[in-house]
Every structure is written in structure tokens, then in C-alpha cells.
Backbone:
């Protein structure tokens, strides 16, 4: 039995913001799911199974939220799965949903990812004291800042590269009505002069804390054909991959992790891509701190090691460049952590469907969605395209 | 839906949108054989690592097995109290539950003879003067305060030696 072709026929997200005080977690995930169903022209009854993902339960302090969200997601009496892979979870959740369709187990799967950071303490949850260790931890920024410094030193990248990425993504977000931050007044100098939170990471080079959810409806080939027949422009999945590696081992390269390299090589091979820089039209990558854009450009094999910052400096990753990155504004403009990876996957699909609105890249036919999590150790990626594989 | 009628005493009261419920978790932590041995060494002001018999890498604190080769690391290696700052950050951000005074320098320090840096505090130096490759030494708490924890090293400080060359630690950043 061959692998079933998989299509993305419905995409929904909430307007990401600091506090969604008007809805509970259940109301928020249902809002994204309802939008995805509307886009797919389906009802709750059409869905065979639900796959849900979020960051660790420690964040909101709700254990196994998938159980109480079953009602809100129309999953009562249907198979429901939960995926856990830290910050990359939105990506790996979509991949698990994809696998359920590709394997022929289900025909129509709803997948949802979320975070309600206003009801959680992410900095605290990521800074727990470890037994017998000094209490040094200072959130994700405290973990990643030393590795960013190592990248700057190793590559010789000038200080302003991180500023250019932040400026680009925040300006792109002005074209995305769902983005959390809409900073119309942002300038190079305002980023440069913002506070050093975890030197070398500035405040304006850091993602916000957001409430938000994202949902996708995935179908088999017949579902994709039906979507195409009514002019719904499905996005076809051409490859999916995940990889992980331990947090600590001697000789581990945390700037350019092997797990990310291998994951990218695998997803390109599945999609028949040999020159990603030329063959991929648009990229949505997980950039929670601005310096991760040049670092991931290298890790994802878009250029030689040490050269990613030059692509940023040359404007290659701007919307008018030849490899636009994070046209949606990316994680730097919206970070509902558990949903952030799925938003990358969703935005990649929106681009190849031609549904990205003001941040659409004209003629985008093939896109990469990327997510990472933990201490740069969990990776999830997919390649989607306007044409069938 | 039936109409909700509030009692008089709740008329005009601001609706509750959320409540704050601090959570607390206390747990027993079993360090395991390798880490227990390391911590007992710390209580005697000794830093004991373990070497992998296959890749020859030295882990400190040891976990009892090599994550790369999946074999027990039984050979014990005593390390000096000096090392190299492979990289670092300066923490200026305030957050709930924080135990450290701001700003502080959080450094990854590769102890001489080991192959994986530990994260520790760097002091007795201005944050502006800290740099990659800086040579540092451990400053211990007074002998009568030493406990089996890495907090028995109060911090690291520069030891005045010339910087380590990039090539000597680039694989451990």
C-alpha cells in the first residue's frame, strides 16, 4: 500500500495578543479550530480524529489539558492524541496529524496547538532551580544568549545583524492582522537602544509573550482534490521530518546542531530538493531571538556555515529578497509558545495557497515550515507546495 | 440559556476574569551513583569527573554513562579548579522567583581536563571585561560551609592567566 497524499485544506488562527481575557483556553482553541473548519468548508462532524499540542503543562499548570479540551474540540467519542516536544511542538503536532492521514488511518484530521501565556509563568517555568546547582537559570534567553555570542564570535557577524532581523520581522508583522505586535514606529535605532535583557540579546530582539492558537485541517488526496475543485487551493505536503538530540554531550554544536541539519536534509530529500536556496520560495522558521535567523539559515542548508548573516545583511530574507523569511512577522512578533511551531507550518501553507493576504509572496509555489524547541534539540519541518507531490 | 440573576451584594462588582494560584512542588531527588560520588567529592573540595572508555571524553558532573557511546563511564578523573570561559551572557532581566542579584554573568566554564562546560557564576570582574577564552578559577565557600552541592563553589573569578586560544575550546562551546 502506497503512502496517501496529504493536503492542507483548512487553516485557522486567533488574533495573537498579550491577554485574551475574554475567553478561556477552551474558548481560544475552539476559535482557531472553528476558523480552520470554516476555511475547509467542514463541520465538526466531518473530522475523524484530533491531534493537539502545547508547551509543557507546567506553563499554565493544567495537567493533560487535552482531556478537558475534548469537548471544545469536538473530539468526544473520537481518537485524540497529544504531542509533546517543547517549543517545537506545534510543528511535530502537525506532523503526527499528517502521518495519520498519510498512513491511511484517518481521512480528515483536525490539529490544534495553543498557549495562553497570560495564564502562565513561562520565565519561571523555564528557570526552575536544579538540585545541587547554583540558581543561575534565566529563562530561554539566558540559555540561548551564550550560544548567540558564540555564533557572533565564530562567524565574525557584526552586531547590527540581530537588529536588522528584528526590524524586518516586526515590519512584516504590520502586514499580518493576526500578529501580536504591530509596532508601526519601530526603527533601527529603537531596536538598538532597547535594553540588553540577556547581553547580547536586546529587548526588541526578543519574542513577546502571547495568547493564541492555531489549527489545521488535513485530508487525504480526495479531500485535497475536492478543495481544489471548489477553488480552495489546497497546500500539498511534500515532506515531513523530525529529529532530536540530547541537551548535553561532549562536542555538541549548539550553534549549528546536527539534529537540525539532519532534519533539513531529510525533508529536502523527501521533497526532491537539491538546492534549497533556489528551490524554496519562502520560509517560515522559528526565530524567537533575532540572531536565530542567520544561525538557522546555515543549519537549514541555505548557505555555508558562517555565511547566514551575510544573507541577512544583503536583504535576501526580506519580503523583496530572493529567499523571504518570516513574512508573517514570525515568532518575534507573536509567540503563543505551543502554537508557534504550527503557525510556521500554517504560514508556509498559506503562502503556497496564495492566502497570505498582505504578506503574500507573489507566485510562491513551495515553502518550508520549521520549528525547534528545548535547548536547540527538537526539530520539526515540512515542505508544502501548490502542486501535488 | 437561563438568565443569570446576581444577588444584590454582587451587583456592580467587577467580574473575576482570572485568579492567581501559586503552585508548589516539593520532591525527593535521588542523585544516582555517579552524581552522588561527584557531590561527595565536592564536599571534600574535590572535582571528580568520569572518562568514557570509547570516546575518552571526560564528563563533570558525571552521569555514569556516556550519552554518545551509551557505555558506563567508570574511570574517575580528578580535575583542577581552573577552567576557560567558553561563552557567557550578562543577565539583566527581572522575573518571578529569581534568586540572583542583577546584573550577573552566567558563564559556561570548561574545567581543565573536562570536555563539557558547566554553567556557573563569574564575579570579581566587571561584566564589560568578561570575554570568551578568559581563564578563571573556583572560589569556594569557607570550609565549614561546604556542602555536597555545586553551590559550594561561590563563583569563578579571573585567575590572571593569558586567554585560552579559540582552537583550544571551540569544540566545547
Residues:
Amino acid at each position: 500500500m502506497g503512502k496517501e497524499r496529504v493536503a492542507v485544506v483548512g487553516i485557522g488562527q486567533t488574533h495573537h495578543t498579550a491577554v485574551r481575557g475574554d475567553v478561556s483556553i477552551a474558548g481560544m482553541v475552539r476559535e482557531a479550530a472553528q476558523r480552520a473548519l470554516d476555511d475547509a468548508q467542514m463541520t465538526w462532524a466531518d473530522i475523524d480524529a484530533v491531534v493537539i499540542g502545547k508547551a509543557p503543562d507546567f506553563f499554565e499548570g493544567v495537567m493533560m489539558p487535552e482531556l478537558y479540551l475534548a469537548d471544545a474540540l469536538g473530539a468526544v467519542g473520537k481518537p485524540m492524541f497529544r504531542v509533546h516536544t517543547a517549543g517545537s511542538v506545534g510543528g511535530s503536532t502537525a506532523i503526527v496529524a499528517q502521518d495519520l492521514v498519510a498512513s491511511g488511518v484517518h481521512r480528515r484530521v483536525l490539529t490544534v496547538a495553543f498557549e495562553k501565556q497570560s495564564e502562565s509563568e513561562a520565565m519561571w517555568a523555564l528557570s526552575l532551580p536544579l538540585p545541587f546547582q547554583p540558581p543561575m537559570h534565566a529563562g530561554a534567553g539566558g540559555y540561548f544568549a551564550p550560544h548567540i555570542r558564540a555564533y557572533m564570535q565564530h562567524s565574525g557577524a557584526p552586531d547590527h545583524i540581530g537588529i536588522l532581523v528584528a526590524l524586518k520581522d516586526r515590519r512584516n508583522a504590520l502586514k499580518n492582522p493576526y500578529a501580536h505586535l504591530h509596532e508601526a514606529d519601530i526603527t533601527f535605532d529603537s531596536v538598538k537602544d532597547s535594553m540588553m535583557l540577556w547581553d547580547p540579546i536586546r529587548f526588541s530582539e526578543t519574542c513577546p509573550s502571547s495568547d493564541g492558537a492555531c489549527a489545521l485541517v488535513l485530508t487525504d488526496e480526495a479531500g485535497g482534490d475536492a478543495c481544489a475543485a471548489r477553488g480552495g487551493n489546497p497546500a500539498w505536503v511534500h515532506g515531513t521530518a523530525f529529529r532530536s538530540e540530547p541537551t548535553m554531550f561532549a562536542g555538541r554544536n549548539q550553534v549549528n546542531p546536527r539534529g537540525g541539519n539532519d532534519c533539513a536534509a531529510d525533508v529536502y530529500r523527501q521533497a526532491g530538493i537539491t538546492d534549497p536556496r533556489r528551490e524554496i520560495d519562502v520560509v517560515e522558521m522559528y526565530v524567537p531571538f533575532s540572531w536565530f535567523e542567520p544561525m538557522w539559515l546555515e543549519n537549514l542548508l541555505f548557505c555555508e556555515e558562517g555565511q547566514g548573516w551575510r544573507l541577512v545583511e544583503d536583504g535576501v530574507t526580506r519580503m523583496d529578497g530572493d529567499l523571504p523569511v518570516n513574512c508573517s512577522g514570525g515568532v518575534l512578533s507573536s509567540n503563543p509558545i505551543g502554537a508557534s511551531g504550527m503557525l510556521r507550518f500554517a504560514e508556509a501553507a498559506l503562502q503556497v495557497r496564495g492566502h497570505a493576504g498582505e504578506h503574500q509572496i507573489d507566485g510562491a509555489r513551495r515553502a518550508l515550515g520549521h520549528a525547534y524547541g528545548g535547548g536547540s534539540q527538537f526539530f520539526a519541518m515540512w515542505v508544502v507546495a501548490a502542486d501535488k507531490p | 440559556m437561563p438568565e443569570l440573576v446576581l444577588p444584590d451584594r454582587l451587583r456592580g462588582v467587577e467580574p473575576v476574569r482570572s485568579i492567581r494560584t501559586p503552585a508548589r512542588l516539593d520532591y525527593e531527588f535521588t542523585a544516582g551513583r555517579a552524581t552522588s560520588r561527584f557531590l561527595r567529592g565536592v564536599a571534600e573540595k574535590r572535582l571528580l569527573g568520569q572518562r568514557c572508555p570509547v570516546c575518552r571524553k571526560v564528563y563533570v558532573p558525571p552521569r555514569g554513562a556516556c550519552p554518545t557511546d551509551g557505555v558506563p563511564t567508570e574511570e574517575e578523573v580528578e580535575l583542577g579548579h581552573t577552567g576557560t570561559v567558553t561563552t557567557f551572557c550578562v543577565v539583566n532581566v527581572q522575573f518571578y522567583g529569581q534568586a540572583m542579584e542583577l546584573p550577573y554573568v552566567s558563564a559556561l566554564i570548561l574545567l581543565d581536563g573536562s570536555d563539557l562546560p558547566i554553567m556557573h557564576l563569574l564575579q570579581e570582574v566587571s561584566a564589560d571585561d568578561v570575554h570568551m577564552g578568559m581563564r578563571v578559577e573556583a572560589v569556594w565557600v569557607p570550609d565549614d560551609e561546604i556542602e555536597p552541592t555545586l553551590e559550594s563553589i561561590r563563583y569563578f573569578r579571573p585567575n590572571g592567566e593569558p586567554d585560552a586560544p579559540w582552537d583550544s575550546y571551540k569544540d566545547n562551546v
User: Anything to note?
Assistant: The longest helix of chain B spans residues 33-42.
